[in-house]
């Protein structure tokens, strides 16, 4: 199966060995790895896309469809905001209002 992977995966095979799929991998994976539950969940979630062919136009279209699926399935609370927030409700990289805590 020809895939494009958005994340790193280690898929356990039937013989107990692991098959590694690196982030941004574009290529063919063995059939037993493609049929694994992990890869199938990643395909449904948009983190692995399966283009119809290997031409650039088809790869770009599949990549766009996968990005759309990934954004639809993203359930993180900060996914729709402009950036990740720190514990105090500040955006990452912003300075706080002063001391974090005081020692007595």
Description:
- With 104 residues, the protein is an alpha+beta fold.
- It is built from 3 helices and 5 strands, in the order ββββααβα.
- A 3-stranded antiparallel β-sheet has the order 4-1-5.
- The longest helix is centred in the middle third of the chain and has 18 residues, at 56-73.
Report the uncertain regions.
82-88
**What is the overall silhouette?**
globular
Can you give the mean pLDDT? 78
Tally of helical runs: 3
In angstroms, what separates the terminal alpha carbons?
A: 62 Å
Biggest sheet layout: 3 strands, antiparallel
Task: Looking at this protein, list some descriptive labels.
104 residues, alpha+beta, two-stranded antiparallel ribbon, 3 helices
Brief description of this entry?
The chain has 104 residues and is α+β, with helices and mostly antiparallel strands.
Question: Secondary structure elements and their pairing?
Answer:
Elements: E1 2-5, E2 9-12, E3 18-21, E4 26-28, H1 31-34, H2 37-45, E5 48-49, H3 56-73
């Amino acid at each position: 199966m020809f895939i494009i992977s958005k994340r790193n995966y280690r898929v356990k095979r039937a013989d107990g060995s692991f098959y590694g799929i690196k982030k941004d991998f574009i290529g063919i994976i063995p059939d037993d790895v493609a049929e694994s539950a992990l890869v199938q969940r990643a395909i449904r979630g948009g983190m692995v896309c399966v283009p119809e062919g290997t031409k650039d136009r088809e790869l770009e279209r599949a990549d766009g469809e996968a990005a759309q699926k990934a954004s639809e399935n993203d359930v993180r609370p900060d996914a729709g905001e402009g950036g990740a927030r720190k514990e105090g409700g500040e955006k990452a990289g912003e300075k706080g209002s002063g001391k974090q805590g005081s020692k007595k």
